[in-house]
Amino acid sequence: MATAALFLAFSALCGFAVEGRRYGKNRLATNIIIGAFVMAVIPLISLLYTVTIHGWTRMIQAGFFTHTTFGSSNIDTVVGAGHAIIGTLVITGTAALISVPFGVLTAVYLVEYGRGTFAKIITFLVDVMTGIPSIVAGLFAAALIPIVNQQLFGQAQFKSGFMGAIALVVLMTPLVVRNTQEMLQLVPNELREASYALGVSKAATIVKVVLRTGVSGIVSGIVIATARIIGESAPLLITAGTTDSYNLNMFQGQMLTLPVYVYNEYTKGHQITAWAGALILIGIVLLLNLFARWIAKRFAPAGN
């Protein structure tokens, strides 16, 4: 830090002396921006390097993607993360299936129909939900789902994959609403007016003009929101729980996810296995972000 500060001061003085005040300020600002970028990238590269070095050797072992942690106390047992990968995909996919329709329709209402006090209340609640701690979402789902099960089925089922999905829905929905709302507001009003002038109804204009124009940003925002919730561990510890075997029934029994898997393996002292689970999770998030970029480029309006 001291070396960087001395370099900035020295380069600024040389810039002012040789290039003048205007170009000296420009050089100083450029060096500060480059320095901030380097300081932000170095920890990221260090994190990726550390996770890859520690987790790669365990991840490429035979059976890691198919075996479970059942019998992990036995030294001869092959420990895997297959059940955690399946649980992550099932819970996150269910949360996305619930959040996306609610989020997109809410954003359409706020942009195209919402006026007055009710729309302001919804906007305020969305802003509040965007900033709530993830543990609160887990507590909400843990309190709500057993009550619903008790009323509908006569039994209070605790810790299930569906309960974990509901906790993630609470976290994902406001992100989808906010992103979709921003994308719809970027659609020029001239497109709406041109559609109305041709006699197209408001609903058809929203579906065929507004949503179609902003589809690239909406879909990429949904994918990024999915990548945001896939790494949550605190709410899933409370709601989905943990297990040492496969569980494909998200309405019955506990279901393990990768973030909880990493936590469990680390607390057991299996650091290498925890690093491997973290590497898989980073890989899934990376693939989701690449998919979001492809969607944004593939469905972007012509000329952009």
Automatic annotation (TrEMBL):
Keyword annotations from UniProtKB, A to Z: Cell membrane, Membrane, Phosphate transport, Transmembrane, Transmembrane helix, Transport
Under the heading Pfam families, the entry gives: BPD_transp_1
Q: Which residues cross the membrane?
A: 33-57, 78-109, 121-148, 160-177, 272-292
Q: Please name the InterPro entries in this protein's record.
A: MetI-like, MetI-like_sf, Phosphate_PstA, Phosphate_transprt_permease
Subcellular location, record wording = Cell membrane
Where do the ABC transmembrane type-1 domain residues begin and end? 85-292
Specify the protein's topology with respect to the membrane. Answer: Multi-pass membrane protein
Under the heading PANTHER family, the entry gives: PHOSPHATE TRANSPORT SYSTEM PERMEASE PROTEIN PSTA
What does it do?
Answer: Part of the binding-protein-dependent transport system for phosphate; probably responsible for the translocation of the substrate across the membrane.
Q: What protein family does this chain belong to?
A: Belongs to the binding-protein-dependent transport system permease family. CysTW subfamily.
Q: What is this protein called?
A: Phosphate transport system permease protein PstA
Gene (name only): pstA
